[in-house]
Amino acid sequence: MGFSKSELSILFTNNDEIAELNRKYRGVNGPTDVLSFPMHDDPLDPSNEPYLLGDIVISVPMAKDIAEQYSTNLESVVDVLLCHGILHLIGYDHDNSEKAADMDQQTMRLLKLLGYQKNDIDWYLTSKWYSEE
User: Fold this and answer.
1) By C-alpha distance, which of 51, 56, 52, 100 is closest to 79?
2) Which end is more exposed in the chain, N or C (fewer Cβ atoms within 10 Å of the end residue's Cβ)?
3) How confident is the model over 6-15, as pLDDT tens digits?
4) Which class would CATH give 8-59+73-127?
């Protein structure tokens, strides 16, 4: 992906705090599992190193709920949420089925580096959100 010397910050928080951030920055009421705040609006140019990607915020209670709901462990959920957040920081989105499929492919690419297989994370594929509509 070309961001070998990049930095980001990660905040693990509760539902109240992530709900406030969600409302303040996205205009959406209620908590969410992960939020990403890119440092740059322009297409990313990682040539300036270290490159500051931005901030990722993960709700630990929501991650625990997801782990319970899908009978998986908390570490796996956090890994998926972190990869999802990183992809948002570098310009990926899932606002339509085509972009969601691409984001899923990139998510799997990152998770394979951590030793996951596709069937390990099928529960969080963003492209499924469009097939359920």
Assistant:
1) 56
2) C
3) 889 999 999 9
4) alpha beta
